[in-house]
Amino acid sequence: MSRHNQLGRAAMIIVTGHIITNADNRAAIEAEAVAHCRRSRAEPGCIAHNCHYDIEHPERLVFVEKWVDAAALRAHFAVPESGAFVKVVSALSTEPPALEIYAAEAVSAAALTAG
């Protein structure tokens, strides 16, 4: 089931997550993450799929994804390489990967500061 915004359009889906790295696993996790992000950006419905280090916690590799709708994210989860990525980084990381999923719509800064 898709959530819709006030204009009747399916809500954009935003995914955030992270993986904990260390000196022993960092290179392997980074290689897997870069390949996964590049592959994911080529999928239909992917607006953005990137990873960054948290500057306050440099061992935390953070993922930020944007998908046009829930159907696109479900299709991404069904790609065998996506499941393989989760298995590989789960085995490499010192903690289970974290994942949060949100339905969202764009809001202008002017709209939030008006008034």
How would you briefly describe this protein structure?
By secondary structure, the chain is α+β, with helices and mostly antiparallel strands. The protein has helices at 26-41, 70-78, 80-92, 109-113; strands at 12-20, 46-54, 57-67, 98-104.
General description of the model:
With 115 residues, the protein is an alpha+beta fold. The protein has helices spanning 26-41, 70-78, 80-92, 109-113; strands spanning 12-20, 46-54, 57-67, 98-104. The chain is built from four helices and four strands; from the N terminus they run E-H-E-E-H-H-E-H. Strands 2-3-1-4 form a four-stranded antiparallel β-sheet. Helix 1 (26-41) runs antiparallel to helix 3. The mean pLDDT is 91.
Topology:
Layout: E1 12-20, H1 26-41, E2 46-54, E3 57-67, H2 70-78, H3 80-92, E4 98-104, H4 109-113
Antiparallel strand pairs: 1-3, 1-4, 2-3
Q: Major beta sheet, specifics?
A: 4 strands, antiparallel
Number of helical segments with 4 or more residues: 4
Topology order in helix (H) and strand (E) letters: EHEEHHEH
DSSP, total strands: 4
The whole-number mean of residue pLDDT values reads 91
- Terminal Cα separation, in Å? 35 Å
Strand content: 25-35%
Structural class: alpha+beta
Shape: globular
For the largest beta sheet, what order do the strands appear in spatially? 2-3-1-4
- Percent of residues in helices: 25-40%
Low-pLDDT residue spans: none
| CA-based gyration radius | 16 Å
